[in-house]
């Protein structure tokens, strides 16, 4: 057994390649396995996502055809869609570089609506030939840490004042739903190379990007920056955050009610773990970025989770993560396979260095060398 295989064996995770009924998973039965994994994650972690709306449309609020020294179009729209309680809308910034006829797209769900933002180097992204759809997660539902789901998108799908059912969606689910609505709209407008759309987020929004791509196969690439617990990191026997940390901070509301039953049970949980989340993205492309001093996000558990995907990717005929048999040192990027992993030096942040790795990987992917 190789070193990384023994590291993974120590985590003692539930099998990805065994169906719920105990039969082995084959390449042919993988779609059914993916559906089983999604169901496990809905019930235990993120809650159930409502169906997509019948109609999505946008109203233009502002348009600048001369953005970034005339290199790009910047349009701010109000993105609208139907819900059971009427129309819901939130603002989205779309940036289209003139240098590309139809550019591949990053949908970036960010902490702030700013263009540019400290987490989003807009001009560099455009200069690298990518379009960008950028929105602020709190315009979908406030990250209020108070368990109030009767606001924002949450209010559109529930009876106000009622307690959540055990598998009712949490806020990560709501933010992920919004990412898919942005993609609906990109497809409708057909101004971009929307078949090549990446969904990207940092930290809690990295968790969100992964859940969005896990559910919505139209995303060809998922980008998770420092997402940690509830994101790219394996929970079992990990060294980062725990369910107790989310309860203490009030961020338990990002998940469904059943998630709370795993308090202090992370190391004995035989029902689910985050390897199931990444597996739902297979065999599509995935970028996971960690930061060396981000102990809360547990970089080793993020890396090991990428490694854990190799049995799934190889079953599906894809290289997965290409790595030497060791944990990567700071400032290492492993970008040869269908899974890209990098370890940045420094702390919890979404830096230009991270973006550099993601853009390089996405470009290589488009050029067909992945
Ligand atoms: C908190 C939270 C983390 C999350 C982070 C962030 O630290 O506990 O799980 O990833 O915020 O979103 O910045």
Walkthrough of the structure:
The chain is α/β, with parallel strands linked by helices. The protein has a single domain, classed as Rossmann fold (3-Layer(aba) Sandwich), CATH 3.40.50.1820. It has twelve helices and ten strands. The protein has a ten-stranded mixed beta sheet, sandwiched between helices. α6 (171-189) crosses α7 (204-215). The two termini are 27 Å apart. Alpha-D-glucopyranuronic acid binds next to α8.
Task: Describe the secondary-structure layout.
Elements: H1 3-11, H2 30-46, E1 56-66, H3 67-70, E2 72-83, E3 86-97, E4 105-110, H4 122-127, E5 131-136, H5 152-155, H6 171-189, E6 197-202, H7 204-215, E7 221-225, H8 243-249, H9 275-279, E8 285-291, H10 299-308, H11 310-315, E9 332-334, E10 339-344, H12 352-366
Parallel strand pairs: 4-5, 4-6, 6-7, 7-8, 8-10
Antiparallel strand pairs: 1-2, 2-3, 3-5, 9-10
